[in-house]
Hints:
Radius of gyration: 22 Å
Largest sheet: 2 strands, antiparallel
Oligomer: single chain
Order of helices and strands: EEH
Number of strands: 2
Strand content: 5-15%
Amino acid sequence: xxxxxxxxxxxxxxxxxxxxxxxxxxxxxxxxxxxxxxxxxxxxxxxxxxxxxxxxxxxxxxxxxxxxxxxxxxxxxxxx
Length: 80
């Protein structure tokens, strides 16, 4: 991830390989459900839920695509 670097070699924002500190990541709202953030769910469970949410977004975007596709398909068959 990109972060603001503190070393002299890098310019303002970079993927810093010179610094020893990893870039800070802001936890998402689901990360607060993890045990290490004071939540009551295991880290693996929360990570799996985050992956499932990404997959659901992909499949949810397919529904409008196919609706438009079939609508255009029917219109073109009607006129030709």
